[in-house]
């Protein structure tokens, strides 16, 4: 499709975006795994566990991307 044709070649900006987003992704994934590990042992039902992990992920996202919002 259109995105495949536009992003098929090597663009300098794609390499830069990839380098900027990788640390954010690693931090985000690590925090989600740690939160999920601790929530799993809590005496909650499945939906409560799911929403705790979801909310913690949503709150982490703006704080992790804040240093790059000025660019």
User: What structural class results from the helix and strand content?
Assistant: mainly alpha
Helix-strand string: HHH
Give the strand content. under 5%
- How would you describe the shape? elongated
The averaged pLDDT comes out at 77
Query: Which stretches are poorly predicted, pLDDT < 50 over at least 5 residues?
Result: none
- Helix residue percentage: over 70%
Largest sheet: none
Characterise this structure.
The chain is 76% helix and 0% strand. Helix 2 packs antiparallel against helix 3. It is an all-alpha fold and 71 residues long.
List keywords for this structure.
about 70 residues; mainly alpha; about 75% helix; about 0% strand; elongated
Outline:
Helix content is 76%, strand content 0%. It has 3 helices and no strands.
Topology:
Layout: H1 2-6, H2 12-40, H3 46-65
Helix pairs in contact: 2-3
